Automatic annotation (TrEMBL):
It comes from Puniceibacterium antarcticum. Residues 14-325 form the Enoyl reductase (ER) domain. PANTHER family: QUINONE OXIDOREDUCTASE PIG3-RELATED (PTHR48106), QUINONE OXIDOREDUCTASE-RELATED (PTHR48106:SF13). It comes from the Bacteria. This is Quinone oxidoreductase. The lineage of its organism: Bacteria, Pseudomonadati, Pseudomonadota, Alphaproteobacteria, Rhodobacterales.
């Protein structure tokens, strides 16, 4: 059976205007695949990197890495999903900005009844990222202190609540006082407006001069130096994004005199490429959401046809929490 699905596609890299809405054929799933009819799609900053060309790819390409919906057909060998299941995913390859698609099943997870489709679309990529940052990247224990940039964003508000639920002190940063208040309301112990304050000095003051155990920095170019200077000796720098631009090349030798610092540059897709690991990580995320420890805050909704406007808003730092595309 072949149907068509309205899909947001790019034929060239560039600004938000490169999106075109096209009808694309959707066939039957092959071995290890499913066909899913989406209820909603998630918007993520990685979509901006892919659209702009910071992360180049073969074109034309439908974008989007996260969505929720109903399983319509199941290919040979898929055992963890069946027709009619509610499901959600963060997955490669891109192509989630569409009404329906055929895709590999391994990273698609059955969605618990207590989680809505909108929440599913808003939380998988961001929530699984927080899961691996807090549980699979460096040992973190109750009482540890983490510095987290862009704490009022999609990943950020989940991280604030996750930290609170694990007894971890999270010092957030954000670009406005209103965003700082939002991060505090979601569990950040402190939040610094990094556009108006000397945030690295403030982090030192908040930690009695000691610095933090871990920095989680997805702002990139603008914050990298200050982040390293905010760490305790033996502290861990997790550089996991480039919202302000990629971190410029640096001399590894600077990590020694700053206190034998550690640094890693992880990506979610390494962690979820293993089917069992992906499903386990999702179970932990779902438990946090179903228990109410983590609430998924959707502050922006755009119809799929307005995907260009959604990208403009995200890049302009005008969003808080998660953004979804509705169908
Ligand atoms: P957000 O909702 O957090 O939006 C990005 C935020 O970054 C903005 O709202 C803004 O917050 C802040 N920011 C700082 N400087 C800039 C700038 N120059 N331009 C634009 N924004 C800026 O996005 P997501 O939740 O989708 O993602 C957060 C980050 O995490 C991204 O960098 C993303 O790439 C990264 N990420 C990495 C993953 C990985 O596995 N490596 C997986 C998932 C996300 P403010 O106004 O408060 O400064």
């Amino acid at each position: 059976m072949t149907t068509t699905a309205r899909t947001a596609v790019i034929h060239e890299h560039g600004g938000p205007d490169v999106f075109r809405i096209e009808d694309r054929p959707v066939g039957d799933p092959g071995k290890g695949e499913i066909r899913i009819r989406h209820a909603a799609c998630g918007l993520n900053f990685i979509d901006v990197y892919q659209r702009s060309g910071l992360y180049p790819m073969q074109l034309p390409q439908a974008l989007g890495m996260e969505a929720s919906g109903t399983v319509e057909a199941v290919g040979e060998g898929v055992t963890h999903l069946k027709v009619g299941d509610r499901a959600a995913y963060a997955a490669q390859p891109p192509g989630a900005y569409t009404e329906a698609r055929v895709m590999p099943a391994a990273q698609v997870c059955p969605l618990p009844d207590g989680i809505s489709f909108d929440e599913g679309a808003a939380m998988m990529l961001k929530g699984l990222t927080v899961q691996y940052l807090f549980h699979r990247t460096t040992p973190l224990k109750r009482g540890d202190t983490v510095l987290f940039h862009a704490a009022a964003g999609g990943v950020g508000l989940i991280a604030c609540q996750w930290a609170r639920s694990e007894g971890i002190t999270l010092i957030g940063t954000a670009g406005t006082d209103e965003k700082c208040q939002l991060a505090l309301d979601h569990g950040a112990s402190h939040c610094i407006n990094y556009r108006t304050q000397d945030w690295a000095a403030e982090v030192k003051a908040l930690t009695g001069g000691a610095g933090v155990d871990v920095v989680m920095d997805a702002v990139g170019a603008d914050t990298f130096d200050g982040s390293l200077n905010s760490l305790k000796p033996l502290g861990m720098m997790i550089s996991f994004g480039n919202a302000s631009g990629p971190v410029p090349p640096f001399n590894l030798g600077i990590l020694g005199p700053k206190g034998s610092l550690k640094i890693t540059r992880p990506t979610l897709f390494t962690h979820i490429s293993d089917h069992a690991a992906c499903q386990d990580m999702a179970q932990m995320l779902f438990a946090k959401v179903v228990s109410g420890d983590v609430k998924i805050r959707i502050d922006q909704r755009f119809p799929l046809v307005d995907v260009a406007e959604a990208h403009r808003t995200l890049e302009a730092r005008e969003t808080t929490g998660s953004t979804i595309l509705t169908l």
